[in-house]
Amino acid sequence: MTKVQIFTDGSARGNPDGPGGYGTILQFTDSRGVLHERELSGGFVRTTNNRMELLAAITGLEALTRPCQVDLYSDSKYLTDAFNQHWIDNWVKNNWKRGKSGPVKNIDLWERLLKAKTPHQVNFIWVKGHAGHPENERCDKLATAAADGSDLMVDEGVDG
């Protein structure tokens, strides 16, 4: 099984409701030892930062063409904790409810992320402030460039 590293970031550019963008970098080494990289950008997005972080992770996983062993790096503690602390398992088990605090937000993207990760073995890794991961900083620059570009516009909306 191919080992892949995915670095993701969503950038709200200081405004939690956008405009922003998201960026993803895929890295893997082939059987000859050659490192391959692929940069993906989601364009301009008018949405919340959490949705951008989820979209960045989804973009990376959906770009994989065969099952892989994935280390997915994100500076979103919410995203990584959802899997590492099994929040998402409990949400699904409780029909997307978080107990007394109400329904889970962004169900559409959580379901899409679950589907995207299904064929893979994914290890979600939280990167605090990008420390030690310059690829994550590159993702932030990609995400910001996507927000600054006007060639692609996606309106994700803001769900409750």
What does this molecule look like?
The chain is of the alpha/beta class. Helices cover 34% and strands 27% of the residues. The protein contains five helices and seven strands; from the N terminus they run E-E-E-E-H-E-H-H-H-E-H-E. Strands 3-2-1-5-6 form a five-stranded mixed sheet. A two-stranded parallel ribbon has the order 4-7. The protein is globular, with a radius of gyration of 15 Å. It is an enzyme of class 3 (hydrolase). It catalyses: Endonucleolytic cleavage to 5'-phosphomonoester.
Task: Tell me briefly what this model is.
Its cofactor is Mg(2+). Mg(2+) 1 binds at residues 9, 53, 75. With 160 residues, the protein is of the alpha/beta class.
